[in-house]
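User: Sequence in, structure out. Go.
Assistant: Echoing your sequence, followed by the structure tokens.
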Amino acid sequence: MLIVCTSSTDVDYATTGDVLGLLFNSTTTAGPGSTQEVDRIGRLVTRASAWADAHVGRPLALQVYSETLAAYGGRQLMVSRRPLVKVLRLFDSSATCDATEYCSTSYRVEDREAGLISRDGGFAWTRVDELSGGDFSLGLAAARLPRREARPWLVEYVAGYSVVGSTTTSFGVSSGAEEYTTGQTLPPDVTQAVTLRAAEMYSNPLGVSQRSVGDLSVTYRGRNTMIGVMSEAEVLLAPYRSAG
């Protein structure tokens, strides 16, 4: 189970000025012409930012999450939101009556981009189903059903990128912590992808890639997944996509 505890108020991964600079960067090109058009571009930036989240498969802006996880007997847990900025609390049970909270010195963030938390003592396999040999494997050996692990490990953590105006103190990271930042950590590729997408939606809202006057033939642009054709914005976001 994944719960968003604190949501970021910075939902735009580019600025109206970024898109205006791309669309009207020439002295021979007329500007947007009215404040209404500028406002429209601002709304398209918000839409393009939401598209970026959907395309990569997770929110990119800083947020605080509470997530229950299964363990498989190894030394690592993997959270589903990344980059993992800071683990706020770690419990061995989601039941508040008997949960043990681990102190921050007993675990560490192993890989922020992968969302990995490591603990020298490991994380016990949380299997719950065990069958006798005769039930499942013709009496040769005991067997356990796959993909039936419980999810007792409860992690509260901060994940995502700091957008313009975001400060990590708003998400439980103190100003003296190693993870504290007041600057932008959102990758430039994400900003560029959102800028390109918003500009495309402004200049070509119907997604038309080809027009013909004779016999009125209209072709709409779209990604051909059979041959892997992607837009430039999708190419820029490819490294940040979540698996699955």
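User: And one key feature?
Assistant: The helical segments are 16-23, 35-56, 133-136, 188-203, 232-237.
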